[in-house]
Design a protein that fits this description.
globular; Rossmann fold; 453 residues; alpha/beta; 7-stranded mixed sheet; binds pyridoxal-5'-phosphate; single chain
Length: 453
């Protein structure tokens, strides 16, 4: 095996200078967000109460590219961009597959995931407009950590509502956020009217991203000089993440490869969009298949309805046209907290409907077993979210082996799992559940299985 292709590292000056916008490339215009009261498209002005002006402009922009501000690009470079594209040589050997498997290393960011790519941009635009405080929600804590660091860089206060189950499972995530200077509370909290209502109706509610978003929005509306910052779903977040795929294309060009598959896990859709959209808009990759990997416990793309729904549980957001399990859906307490979201980015939804993206759902036992194999063979403990993409890549590589075919796969390693060891401990102790909510078969178990019930 050729070792020279083990890791493709671009020069720091090759960090992208522009964001790549998917909107002008869609076959049909994206259905606009609507005001639930009037069922009419929302005026972008309405979004200005919540988001920095530049983000609102980007949300509806039809420009093919948008320049990355120098200050943001500098943070991207200080945070490890361009991130390496690494060949999974150990994993390929373990699978005895003829396929070439590459992964994009978003785990190298100081906060451990892709989330800083957009947190830095949003904090920068807010600070430029004189904002002093940002409110947000976080599931597994990766987004909250990125917001905390971005706010520290731009000297903003950060207020983070963390989904209660993740707050309990991943306590050191909270400590990391506090180290960066953020204030963090478990959600549902007693700090907002909506949180108090949920706590009264159902004490010890595990929380959901939908509820935490409602709390952060209520906080934003009720506090002066505060903007809301969102880590996924909206068009401008997908835009900021496009640095991932742009780099991956440049890296594959170095070794003259075109991928047969591009794979990412999907919560709200941002890391998937980040790796996939730059390939999707490029005619050179018209034969590439795009796989969106989600949990069977929260199968928005594979089982959700394509409809207008709220982005949060309290119904404070405009309605978005997306695949949704319902804004009040409470997913089982799987460890991939970042994938416990009822909806998906409207752009990812629209492309799935067009048939350009193929969604797949995986059980958390199979997923974490894939994570363990990856750790053993590549040395990196993946975030449980990212392990969904790994599971998909493994299945494709094994299927190709069966057929005696070779192919090239690229998946996004959206984050590391250093704060997710409780998930791996549960797997190895045999106390992990499959957590299947909607009539989906239990874990398949295969040659990779460690344990789990
Ligand atoms: C490591 C990691 N991967 C993936 C996700 C899912 O979010 P998205 O689909 O927006 O990338 C999260 C969300 O918290 C995450 O922390």
């Amino acid at each position: 095996m050729k070792q020279e292709h083990a890791r493709i590292q671009l020069d720091i000056d090759d960090t992208p200078r522009e964001y790549l916008n998917i909107l002008p490339h869609l076959k049909n215009p994206l259905p606009p967000p609507i005001n639930p009261a009037t069922e009419e498209p929302v005026n972008p002005e309405m979004l200005l109460a919540l988001f920095p002006e530049e983000c609102v402009k980007q949300e509806v922009s039809m420009e093919k590219t948008i320049a990355i501000p120098t200050e943001v690009r500098e943070i991207l470079m200080r945070s490890g961009r361009p991130t390496p594209l690494q060949r999974a040589i150990g994993l390929e050997r373990a699978l005895k597959t003829p396929c070439r498997i590459y992964y994009k290393r978003e785990d190298v960011s100081p906060t451990g995931s892709h989330k800083l790519n957009t947190a830095a941009a949003q904090a920068y635009y807010a600070q430029k407009e004189g904002i002093e405080r940002m409110a947000t929600e976080t599931g597994a804590g990766q987004w909250g950590s990125a917001v905390a660091l971005a706010c520290a860089y731009f000297e903003l206060e950060a207020m983070v509502y963390m989904v209660r189950i993740s707050y309990e499972q991943k306590q050191y995530r909270g400590t990391l956020m506090r180290t960066y200077g953020a204030t963090i509370v478990p959600s549902p909290s007693d700090l907002t009217e909506f949180g108090r209502k949920i706590n009264k109706e159902q004490p010890n509610h595990p929380g959901t991203l939908g509820i935490a978003i409602s709390e952060a929005l209520e906080d934003t509306i009720n506090n002066e000089n505060t903007k809301y910052t969102l880590g996924s779903v909206l068009n401008f977040v997908m835009l900021h993440q496009s640095v991932i795929g742009q780099e991956a294309i440049a890296q594959l060009d170095v070794i003259d490869l075109s991928p047969d598959y591009v794979i990412g896990c999907v919560g709200g859709g941002s890391n998937f969009a980040g790796i996939a959209f730059p390939f999707l808009v490029n005619d050179r990759f018209r034969d590439t298949k795009f796989i969106a990997a989600e949990p069977t416990a929260c199968p928005s793309l594979t089982k959700g309805e394509y409809c207008y729904d709220f982005g949060d549980t309290a119904g404070l957001t405009p309605k978005l046209k997306m695949h949704s399990l319902g804004a009040d859906f409470t997913p089982p307490k799987i460890h991939a907290g970042g994938l416990r979201y009822h909806g998906v980015a409207p752009t990812v939804s629209a492309l799935t409907l067009e048939g350009r993206i193929t969604p797949q759902a995986f059980n958390q036992i199979d997923v974490l077993n894939a994570g363990v194999l990856f750790a053993k063979t590549e040395g990196i403990i993946p975030a449980p979210e990212s392990a969904h993409a790994i599971k998909s890549a493994i299945d494709i590589a094994l299927e190709a082996k069966k057929k005696n075919e070779s192919c090239t796969l690229v998946f996004n390693l959206s984050g590391h799992g250093h704060f997710d060891m409780a998930a791996y401990a549960a797997l190895m102790n045999g106390t992990l559940n499959g957590d299947e909510p909607i009539g989906i078969p239990q874990a398949t178990g295969d040659l990779l299985t460690v344990q789990g019930k």
